Amino acid sequence: MILRPLVAGNWKMNGLRASLAEIEAMGAAYDDALRVRAELIVCPPATLIALAREIATRGGLGVGGQDCHAEASGAHTGDISAEMLKDAGASYVIVGHSERRSDHGETDADVRAKAAAALSAGLTPIICVGETRAEREAGDALSVVGAQIEGSLPADAPAHIVVAYEPVWAIGTGLTPTVDDVAEMHAFARERIEARLGGGKSGDVRILYGGSVKPSNARELMHVANVDGALVGGASLTAKEFIGVASAYV
Ligand SMILES: O=C(CO)COP(=O)(O)O
Predict the structure, then answer these.
(1) Intervals of the chain under pLDDT 70
(2) Domains in the chain, please, with CATH?
């Protein structure tokens, strides 16, 4: 089956209220031709989700969070639950981003629990996996990503979950894997997702590529087999670049 591509913008720890003008501009540029081809969402910092939601909805975009706690509520100062993100207007949440894994020591088990919490709250988790440069150079990229998929996806997850392959060495560096490497990894990821979820569900799971996606390389990367969209960092901060990436689908 042909999946509707998802182009998701991860703003990371960037964005003040003034940045909402970019979401307004994204909506204005998200025309009918693009809408039928690709779903667009933006994941701003949690402080902007409720405000972003109103503006994004007018423009036909969705909104996501960047992380959630594994529990629904409780004594976890500074954390945000999936239910809170949903309440603020999010429909997606990124979990297991490599920056969370490295900055906060999140393990596959933590990521799996967060993904399960997201699903219970009615959010679609975007579950991130990806190898480091040292792991790729050692020839371990496939085995590392395979183990992350096995460990980070809830075994009973539905087919509407999203998996994002983001090689750590490609994030924010301007470097990208070759088209052949992306094709190899995404085909392998789909096999491992099938092994984890079973029942033919993997055919409906969108697998995004992330890491230095820009308007100049999006067309090439987005048309690789088994690439069902992009998770975009730096180039999602402005409407011009984000729509430039999404336009790979028009
Ligand atoms: O980490 C990323 C998205 O989650 C990718 O970031 P860049 O697009 O800035 O490389």
Answers:
(1) 1
(2) 6-214+226-234 (3.20.20.70)
